[in-house]
Amino acid sequence: MGWYRADQKIRYALPMLMLAVAAALAVMSGHGSPLRAQEATAVDVALVLAVDASGSISPAEFQLQKEGIAAAITNDEVLAAITEGRHGRIAIAYVEWGGPANAQIVVDWMLVGDTATAEDFAVTVLGAERSSQSYNALGDAIALSTALIAQCPCRPTRRVIDVSGDNPDNRSQMPAPLARDAAVAARITINALAILNDGGLGTGGQPWLVENYQANVIGGFAAFVMTATDRADFARALRQKMILEIAGLEPDAPPADRVQTAGD
């Protein structure tokens, strides 16, 4: 499994219009059993899973992604990372993205702090109907996720957007770098999971999608990109990524001239 550190430079003085657009994108209907405002409580992290649901993904491939999320959140190591936190619980939401300005909140905020609540989230994700998407408007997904975190009825110590996809941003109304900068200005970390369907290398010797996500998607303190070789590898990669995000850990840096794989 590969991961790649972000440039640690934090971007400031962003136009308020960016955040206004992000808030406007948040007018979507959610599903599941969302947290209520009166239930606001302290959590270690507010985590948005923003998953690629674009038209290029077959029903079978998309099912693998959802099953990977369910497997990750109920994994013993992930649950240990959750329960060993200061507050022993996280807030988590699930977003699907694809078409321009069409990112959808599929599962609104839910608290996870034990096996039962983790299973509740997993069942809700598995039972949700797939949203209708097209293209790869990744920037709009980040904008929606930023607004969603702003509306989280909890008090998170950290705020993380976890984006996964197999293509770069190409149709967003708010381009990914602008959406990323708005999120970072709101003290949100954006990490990415790059699904390497073709394994092509970029000019720097890393997979081209990793280089794109480094430059245009991830941001915030200790942001990183992880890789999955394909959607069958999604569950493993997401599990390891969530452990780091929930525990607030940074991966160990790999040698700069090679890509780590699951067997390393």
TrEMBL record:
Pfam (any one): DUF1194
Protein name per the record: Uncharacterized protein DUF1194
Protein's organism: Dongia mobilis
